[in-house]
Amino acid sequence: MKIVLGADHGGFALKECIKKYLISKNTIETIDIGCFIEESVDYPDIALNAASKLKEINADYIFAFCGTGIGISIALNKIDKIYCANIYNVSSAKLAKEHNAVNAIAMGGRELDFDTAILMVNAFLEAEVLSDNHKRRRAKIGY
Predict the structure, then answer these.
(1) Each residue's pLDDT tens digit, 66-75
(2) Does residue 2 contact residue 102 with C-beta atoms inside 8 Å?
(3) How far apart are CA 32 and CA 55, in angstroms?
(4) Domain boundaries, position 39
(5) What φ, ψ does residue 122 adopt, rounded to 5°?
(6) Residue 9 known to be catalytic
(7) Closest Cα partner for 71 from 42, 40, 93, 49?
(8) Is 35 assigned a catalytic role?
């Protein structure tokens, strides 16, 4: 599995925590597109770079981070073939994959503690995409 990681300055610390955790699993290839320090950077640029990298290397998911997760999720959702959910707890992480089959999740670095974020990542990774009604509903919005 390949996961592209990207964050602005508000999500930098959480990205670094999640990257370290994913690397420790030894089964997930992480591709970090930045930012690499806590200096101000614009989340739309990170979103565009993450989406480009996902498509270029045929990665499975984008894990994106900003202060709240809101801005970067909006930016990602403006990009063709990117379906991002701003997750905020374990349940939203699981359902984003099961019901919505997203290929990107966003998290708020100023909103989440590291332990909760790791639980959310695990819930997302362990979830399976469900079909039936959810597939029909996804098709109504273009994917």
Answers:
(1) 999 999 999 9
(2) no
(3) 14
(4) 2-139
(5) -60, -45
(6) no
(7) 42
(8) no
What is the tens place of the pLDDT at every residue in 23-36? Answer: 999 999 999 999 99
HSE at residue 113, side-chain half, CA atoms within 13 A, is 2
Task: Confirm if 32 and 19 have CB atoms less than 8 A apart.
Answer: yes
List beta partners, residue 106: 64, 86
Structure tokens at 95: 């359902």
- 3 state SS of 38: coil
Tokens of 20: 């370290």
Residue 44 backbone dihedrals phi, psi, to 5 degrees: -60, -35
- Cα(122)–Cα(124) distance, rounded to whole angstroms? 5
- One-letter amino acid at 54 equals L
Length of the chain: 143
Number of domains into which the chain is organized: 1
One of 9, 17, 35, 66 is an active-site residue; which one? 66
Place of tokens 């498509």: 55
Q: Which CATH number characterizes residue 6's domain?
A: 3.40.1400.10
| DSSP state letter for 129 | -
Mean of pLDDT over the chain: 95
| Cα–Cα distance, 4 to 31 (Å, whole number) | 5
